[in-house]
Amino acid sequence: MTEQFEPRIVGFLCNWCSYAGADLAGTSKLKIPSSLTPIRVMCSSRIDPVLILTALLQGADGVLIAGCHPGDCHYNEGNYYARRRFAVLKKVVDSLGLESDRLCLSWVSASEGQRFAEVVNEFNEKIKKMGQNPMKKKML
Amino acid sequence: MANALKITKNTEESVREFLKILLEKRKVKGVFTLKKIGKNGAVTYSLITKSDELNDAVPFYPLMPTNAGKLLSRITRNGSTTEPVAVIVKPCELRAFIELVKREQGHFENLYIISSTCGGVYPLKTATDGTIEKNLSDYWDAVKKGEINQDLRPACTACTEFTPYGADITVDLIGNTELEKKCFLLLNTKKGEELVQDMKGELVDRDFDKEKLKKFYAKREKAKNQFFNENTKINGLDDLIKIFGRCIGCHGCSKVCPICYCTLCMFDSSNLEYKPSKYESEVRQRGGLKIPPGTIYYHLGRLTHVGISCVGCGSCEDVCPVNIPLTLIFKKVGESMQQIFEYIPGKNITEKIPLVTYNEEEYTEIEG
After folding, report:
1. Complex ipTM above 0.85?
2. From the list A49, A50, A77, which residue is nearest B358 (CB)?
3. CB distance from B336 to chain A under 8 Å?
4. What is the domain class of A9-136 according to CATH?
């Protein structure tokens, strides 16, 4: 029997919304794939695109960035900046012919435990279909 | 109304004389321009206060020792200069300076910006082996005719932003068939008009030869498309490894990049240094490791950091000891991300850098 591919996903979760949302999903006993490695950041705009690249080049199969819904940012506007940065990163990755589908930006509020579970499950399935990140085994 | 100063003399000479008079009449206290050193064609940017020192000034020499935007930022980082200074820079250097001013790394006040339509510059090595001097007459012939010069920096042959944005005075070079006899200083701003008052020369009505510039633009655009499409295509990880694999990790490209202004670069920090144990774990995972490691990471990271403001000056490629086609990559990827925001770096000082501003309703399609 061949071993089934279990992806490794790095999740950058904003402290005020998505991390609390993940917490809620946990306390609600919702099923969240164990492939997710959460990293708590104070705001989605804290995430320098370089951090995402680090994860990718070090072999993460997918990178999830989750923050407050637009308009709900704890710091009023952080997620708007995050969205622009993400757009830029996606463009860089796309124009060099790398897989931008391994990156996901999503909004999850503190009360959306259900949504958090859905987002992670969906992303996990997508990465499973994509297979292993080719950068994992390359000599970089 | 007259909008240009006409001086009936060789263009470079007229500008040199113009600068001298500016200093002598104390309209400015300093001049920032290219100056020759030695005989084989080496030049350096200099800040000059004595008019005699301007004898060796070569304001439009087709060489860019360092992007002047970076140098102007060093002079004005803490505030505007205390005395007025006239600066002669190329369009992309001016754009780089504007980008730095937006990042609070420079100040415009008290600077009189003189720029020109630009025919491009030669790679730096032509100045060290002396070939640039032999090429000069060909260069000016091509500029007069409005043709693309061969052997220029690849970035320059594919540059479509050859007219300066926001200069006080623009010197008409491209397509000016009488470069040896007549010089036209086009006055774009009030500051520029003030500067030419009671100067030698004649105030006339004059504009660029728009038809010629248009034709020149078309030629450059064609060259650009060729440059982007036919040269090394980068598609996927293997290509990246091929191109960046030979990087020796000197970080020279970031040292000369005008947009890379951080005094402590994150890629130079010990945080990102591989510890011996990291080498082991990496090798275990990958079955092999390129040493120095992380060169692809460095270049991709730099792309995301500076790409949005990349003016395509080509300095990075010029200093690369292993000839990585950095301009091709940075210009191509940079322009693709600038297009998302319809942003031309350095065009407008009042326009914010796209990454420090936002609209509430935008790019919802990238959300998952």
Report:
1. yes
2. A77
3. yes
4. alpha beta
